[in-house]
């Protein structure tokens, strides 16, 4: 089986794609997928489904959702529900777990590619870094879990994935700018700065790409748009890096060497407890 959470939720077997249609069933499946290989405690599942106001029948309803998911896995794999309960969606002390070896999850491949890409950049292999980071970002089919109703637990994980996506993009653009690929990054940066109006790193990269493409006036407009958003929203001025970049644009200085990211390898922390590990 293949599972996807980097966009709309899906389960794929032999090329056929499926997913539960009921919103709460999708929520339970998504919770299990983003914590694949870990035990997801029953209280966390209940909280994500009903926040702080679960129905009296909440535990029984959750058990029904688990049973329905096992039936779905049984239907698409040909395994019996007993085999699914033993090898795929297993009951553990205090909760449930999707077995790590049950299938291939797109987010796991994404995390491996981001790690290998950042390690390549850290050892000076820009070509390998660009290849792996680009391949990682191509796995995204839209916002993480775009069609899944998320409670507080799942929403925190979804935001973590989105932040990781932005960070990977920043690393990729940083090396592309150093390689002289100024125009190639403009379209994506234009969209991302609109979507993230307070993100100084993306705005700095956009300013620099515009400046090196001979579009100083637009680069200055990006700075003033960022500054206006920061002052109005947070009462803050742009940070020193963006300020120095702004001065370089004003001075028509193309020799300035901004550093948008720190070139060092990412080391994943072991996920030893539910919610306690960082995979990126």
UniProtKB/TrEMBL annotation:
Q: Which family does it belong to?
A: Belongs to the AfsR/DnrI/RedD regulatory family.
Q: Where is the OmpR/PhoB-type domain?
A: 1-100
One MF annotation (Gene Ontology) recorded for this entry? DNA binding
Q: Which superkingdom heads the taxonomic lineage of this protein's source?
A: Bacteria
Q: Name one GO biological process term.
A: phosphorelay signal transduction system
Coiled-coil residue spans: none
Question: Any keyword Lipid metabolism?
Answer: no
**Keywords from the named record:** DNA-binding, Transcription, Transcription regulation, Two-component regulatory system
Residue range(s) of DNA binding per entry: 1-100
What's this protein's name? Answer: AclI
Pfam families, per the entry: BTAD, Trans_reg_C
The cross-references to InterPro entries, in alphabetical order and at most eight, read: AfsR-DnrI-RedD_regulator, BTAD, OmpR/PhoB-type_DNA-bd, Sig_transdc_resp-reg_C-effctor, TPR-like_helical_dom_sf, WH-like_DNA-bd_sf
């Amino acid at each position: 089986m293949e599972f996807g959470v980097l966009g709309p939720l899906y389960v794929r077997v032999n090329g056929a794609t499926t997913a539960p249609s009921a919103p709460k069933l999708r929520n339970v499946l998504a919770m299990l997928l983003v914590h694949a290989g870990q035990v997801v405690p029953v209280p966390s599942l209940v909280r994500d489904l009903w926040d702080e106001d679960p129905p009296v029948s909440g535990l029984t309803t959750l058990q029904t959702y688990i049973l329905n998911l096992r039936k779905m896995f049984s239907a698409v794999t040909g395994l019996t529900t007993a085999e699914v309960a033993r090898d795929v969606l297993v009951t553990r002390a205090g909760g449930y777990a999707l077995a790590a070896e049950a299938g291939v999850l797109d987010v796991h491949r994404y995390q491996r590619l981001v790690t290998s890409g950042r390690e390549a950049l850290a050892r000076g292999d820009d070509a390998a870094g660009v290849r792996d980071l680009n391949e990682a970002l191509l796995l995204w089919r839209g916002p993480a879990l775009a069609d899944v109703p998320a409670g507080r637990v799942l929403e925190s994980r979804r935001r973590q994935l989105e932040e990781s996506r932005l960070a990977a993009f920043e690393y990729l653009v940083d090396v592309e700018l150093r390689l002289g690929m100024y125009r190639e990054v403009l379209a994506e940066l234009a969209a991302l700065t609109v979507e993230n109006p307070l993100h100084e790193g993306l705005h700095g990269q956009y300013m620099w790409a515009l400046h090196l493409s001979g579009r100083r006036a637009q680069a200055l407009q990006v700075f003033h748009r960022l500054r206006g958003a920061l002052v109005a929203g947070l009462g803050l001025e742009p940070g020193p890096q963006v300020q120095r970049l702004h001065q370089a644009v004003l001075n028509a200085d193309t020799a300035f060497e901004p550093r948008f990211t720190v070139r060092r390898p990412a080391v994943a922390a072991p996920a030893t407890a539910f919610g306690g590990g960082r995979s990126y």
